[in-house]
Amino acid sequence: AAVLTAPRRIEIQGFEKPRLGPRDLLMKVRYCGVCGSDIHLWEGHWNPPYPLILGHEFIGEVADAGGEALAWRGLEMGDPVAVEMIIPCHRCDWCRRGYYNLCVTDDRSIFPGNGAQYGCNIPVTRPPTALWGGYSQFLYVPENAIVHRLRGNVDWKETALVEPLAVSARAVKRGGVRSQESVVVVGPGTIGLMAVVAAKAAGADPVILMGTRDSRLELGEALGADGSVNVTEAREPVEEVKRLLGGSGADIVFETAGTPSAQAQSLKMARRGGRVVLVGLTGGRGLTIEPDSELLSSELDVRTSYLSAHAYQDAIKIIRSGRFDLDKVVTHIHPLREVDEAFRRFVSREGDAVKVLLDPWPSNP
Ligand SMILES: [Zn+2]
Ligand SMILES: [Zn+2]
């Protein structure tokens, strides 16, 4: 596994396979995606609990199981599975209410008050095993983890997008997107691109993507966006978006860029009585608004969406539909031992990198 031991320092280390409890599984990781939040942790933001195996965008197959685990989960050895990145406690008030993305048990570091998350806040020293992150050949899957069996022939490369797609599918649910509603997605990063896909899958029409990079906007259109606006090229981007929507603004705006200026723009692009869903984290930066004119007098609903709870099944369905050319999003695959090179490519966007995957078994067909 690749272990983050200090800021910008990742070491390949070997670990024993864990002794599994009766309902535990061990997953063989086929791919793990590199995410912007991995880079934050790598740089030392959010106070990472070193030593830590990064990676929460993984996909794989059942490699080992405790005595009851297969029957209890309805799985067989070798089944392809998606394991959710949130490991809920299932006991706190928020888990019981169905908001397991807000689980308050077991937090060790980032965003105090949020439960255990693979590859984010569980150090290798946590019993019973080190294997708490996707940058690894194997992942430990305890009884309280949420596991989805993948049916039929699995396209591993596309299915590796299940976690970011689930984040966006949750946002689309939170926005209550209905058929024929107009949508603007701000920010053509992976989450924004996946929001285009999830909104189209929910029947939104049209979907307009807004961003600063033409190559990403083109990719968004290839994934189903009905139009796009380059913020740096349009003289009045907000007006340009409204013009594309026939003048009155969008039914729903999804903000995925995570900057205060993009959030401010998002409020301006929703129609009167529309909804704005904030998805992108700003890294603690503030936003000043004038509530009377910007919210109240147009009766805007501003919502937020956090992580991926209750959305993996939607994501799996979208991937299996084959309707979207998700293959285009995965631009590079690096062997796990080249994680530093993969990070460099991801950060520099060299070769128009969008989603970079790590392959812990580089001889994979
Ligand atoms: Zn992520
Ligand atoms: Zn909980």
**What is the tally of beta strands?**
18
- Report the principal-axis shape: globular
Distance between the termini: 21 Å
Order of helices and strands: EEEHEEHEEHEEEHHEHEHEHEHEHEHEHE
Count of DSSP H/I helices: 12
Quote the average pLDDT: 94
Helical amount: 25-40%
Can you tell me the number of structural domains?
Answer: 2
Largest sheet: 7 strands, mixed
The CATH superfamily label of the largest domain reads: Medium-chain alcohol dehydrogenases, catalytic domain
Q: Which residues form runs of ≥5 with pLDDT under 50?
A: 108-112
Domain Alcohol dehydrogenase-like N-terminal: 21-147
Organism: miscellaneous Crenarchaeota group-15 archaeon DG-45
Family: Belongs to the zinc-containing alcohol dehydrogenase family.
InterPro entries: ADH-like_C (IPR013149), ADH-like_N (IPR013154), ADH_Zn_CS (IPR002328), GroES-like_sf (IPR011032), NAD(P)-bd_dom_sf (IPR036291), Zn_alcohol_dh (IPR050129)
Q: Care to give the gist of this entry?
A:
27% of the residues lie in helices and 24% in strands. With 365 residues, it is α/β, with parallel strands linked by helices.
What's the SSE blueprint?
Elements: E1 2-6, E2 9-12, E3 25-33, H1 36-42, E4 52-53, E5 57-65, H2 69-73, E6 80-83, E7 86-87, H3 93-96, E8 116-117, E9 138-141, E10 147-149, H4 156-159, H5 162-175, E11 183-186, H6 190-201, E12 207-211, H7 214-222, E13 227-230, H8 237-244, E14 250-255, H9 260-269, E15 270-278, H10 291-294, E16 301-304, H11 312-321, E17 330-335, H12 339-348, E18 355-359
Parallel strand pairs: 11-12, 11-14, 12-13, 14-15, 15-16, 17-18
Antiparallel strand pairs: 1-2, 1-4, 3-5, 3-9, 3-18, 5-6, 6-10, 7-8
This protein binds zinc ion (2 copies).
